[in-house]
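Troubleshooting: if your tokenizer reports a length mismatch, compare your output against this known-good record of 271 residues.
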Amino acid sequence: MRGVLAVRLFTLFAIVCLVSGCVLNYNFNDSNSNEEPQLMNMDSESTAAAAPLDEQFDGPEDSPDQKNSKDRSDKLIILGAGSISSLFLGSLFSEVFKITVLVSLLTPLISKSKNRNDLLTRGRLLGFLEANAGIHFSALRDSLGLANGVTAYHLQVLENNGKIISWKDGKLRRYAISEISKSKLDTIRNPIMGTRLAILEILSNSGKLGLSNSDISKKLSISRQLMSYHISELRKSEYIGTNSEAKRPKWILTNLGVDALNSSNSFQYPQ
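Known-good structure output:
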């Protein structure tokens, strides 16, 4: 999965910053606690008594090297903590990013503790995906009652073994079994909607008589240029055909177009 190596390197960088900052801060505090205040010798008790209290008890000021060390430690700690926080916040707002972080950081730990339930869990995932093609990560996790890391790990194993496929859908990542038919996968990944769905519905109502480009554009109140583009795309997909060999033919639905229309009208992503 893309980004796994980048997340691991970024996390390593953040940990190094935190550890380095803590070590520098510890050394700074330790050196200050072990430093004995240098007391000035007084000629007599009366001279000591006459000196102001703040002058008697003021400790030595930090040297420039100590100040630089303290500043470096603070900056490293802030940089490391900020980097870790950015990973956490990114995971909250993007499911795709969350899966990348889980695969990067948790799955190596889970893979070392294999048990008998692994095959059972993967079987459950495959069965659920077969019945709910296109479901996204969080919905799949919640439906099966699995933890984030466990879900990400087993999905990665199944995808690496060619059992399932996944794709990005906005901020979500969706899954399906690899044996899904091409037509069903196309419908799930790119459901027909908007203008093209409206064109199919109009042609479905016209039956075998069909409609010309101008007829469709008038019914939908769109320009002929835009209509020609959508007609061309629908024809490439073999969803529409002509009812004659005329120079300006009328368009009708093909059997594939009828199936696509029915699938699009009834299709809803599993949640």
